[in-house]
Here is the input.
Amino acid sequence: MANVLSNLRAPVGANRNRTRKGRGVGSGLGKTAGKGQKGQKARHPGNFGKLHFQGGQTPIQRRLPKRGFRNPFPTEIVAVNVSSLSKRFADGATVDLAALQSVGLVDKGASRVKILGDGDLERKLTLKVHAISAGARAKVEAAGGSVEILEDATVADGGTK
Here is the structure.
């Protein structure tokens, strides 16, 4: 009768009570509660959980030399290949950032696009992009299309990106 939904029960030994540490010698984990004798990891608040702490020696992030520079505001350029343009756009279409976002080739947050020359292009397209490789430009113009390079307004005015 165990196959009836209202009579289902867990098998014997499947459900066990949780272990209550530090509740007397009879509990199996009394006295030191499984933490051993003394030491930093046995003290009251628990483990010393400071991130990257290495027991008092000079941490590795302070021992290694600091070199180089990381730009906190990098200009992210999304690369798109010519072959994916050929699959997604009709003959004579204008390809710009909004069009690339609408067909899903570029994320919504992207601000700059570069076209790369991997693959073949069979369609005549008008490209309005921020950058293009020499091979990609040759393939677009060989197919009868044209390329217009866009200037960033903020960079052209001398402002910050």
Summary: The CA atoms of residues 41 and 47 lie 5 Å apart.
